[in-house]
Write a structure and sequence with these properties.
Number of domains: 1
Number of helices: 9
Shape: globular
Strand content: under 5%
Order of helices and strands: HHHHHHHHH
Length: 209
C-alpha cells in the first residue's frame, strides 16, 4: 500500500495501473500480430469464418496467458539458477506443446464441431511463432515479475484474437462485394491485413510498458 502511495506521489501508476498499461499496450499499441507480424499463417488461413476465428482466438489467449506465466517461473527458478538459459528455447516449446495438447483435448471434448472446423491449425498452435514470441518478448521486458508476465501474455493473446476476429468480419463482407479476379483470396486478405496493421502501428509508442 505504501509503495502504491509513493508511486502515485511521484506521478507513476501503482501496481494495478501498471498491469492495466501492460495489458492495453500488449493488446493494442504493440499487437503481437499486427505490429510484430507473428502468427500470420493461421491468421490468414482461419479468418475465413467468424466462428472458427473466435474459437482459435480463445485457444490462443489461453495458451499465451498460461505459457507466459509458466515460462517466467521456469526462467526465474530453473534455467537462471542452473545456468542453462541456452536451453530456454527448447523448454519453452515443450511447455507450449503441453498446453496445446490440453487445449486440443478440451475442445475435442466440449465442442467437436469447432475441433473439426479448426482441423490441423489447432495442434499447429504449438509451432505458432506468436506463442513463442510472447514468452521471448516477456523475458526481454526488464523488471517484469510473474503477474506482469501473466498480464502481458493475456494482453498479447487478446490482441491476436482481436486481429483475427476483425479480419474474419471484414472477409465476410468482402465475399459479398465484387473483388477483382486477381485480388481474390490471399491477395485481398494481405492488402486488408496491411491496412489494419498500419492503423495499429500508428498507435505504437503511445503507451510505454
Amino acid at each position: 500500500m505504501l509503495e502504491q502511495v509513493s508511486l502515485a506521489a511521484q506521478g507513476q501508476p501503482g501496481v494495478l495501473g501498471q498491469l492495466v498499461i501492460i495489458f492495453l499496450a500488449a493488446a493494442f499499441t504493440d499487437n503481437i500480430l499486427l505490429s510484430r507480424f507473428l502468427g500470420m499463417c493461421s491468421f490468414l488461413a482461419i479468418s475465413r469464418q467468424m466462428k472458427t476465428s473466435i474459437g482459435l482466438g480463445i485457444a490462443v489467449v489461453f495458451v499465451t496467458t498460461c505459457t507466459a506465466g509458466i515460462n517466467y517461473l521456469v526462467h526465474a527458478y530453473v534455467t537462471v539458477p542452473l545456468g542453462i538459459e541456452f536451453l530456454e528455447y527448447i523448454i519453452f516449446i515443450v511447455v507450449i506443446a503441453a498446453f496445446v495438447q490440453l487445449v486440443e483435448m478440451v475442445v475435442e471434448r466440449f465442442s467437436p464441431p469447432l475441433y473439426f472446423a479448426l482441423g490441423i491449425f489447432l495442434p499447429l498452435i504449438t509451432v505458432n511463432c506468436a506463442i513463442l514470441g510472447v514468452s521471448l518478448f516477456m523475458l526481454a521486458k526488464q523488471g517484469y515479475g510473474f503477474w506482469q508476465s501473466l498480464v502481458f501474455g493475456a494482453g498479447s493473446g487478446i490482441g491476436w484474437m482481436l486481429a483475427i476476429v476483425l479480419m474474419a468480419g471484414i472477409r465476410s463482407r468482402i465475399r459479398e462485394d465484387k473483388v477483382p479476379e486477381g485480388l481474390r483470396g490471399a491477395g485481398i486478405t494481405l492488402i486488408v491485413s496491411g491496412i489494419i496493421a498500419l492503423a495499429f502501428v500508428g498507435f505504437s509508442g503511445m503507451i510505454k510498458f
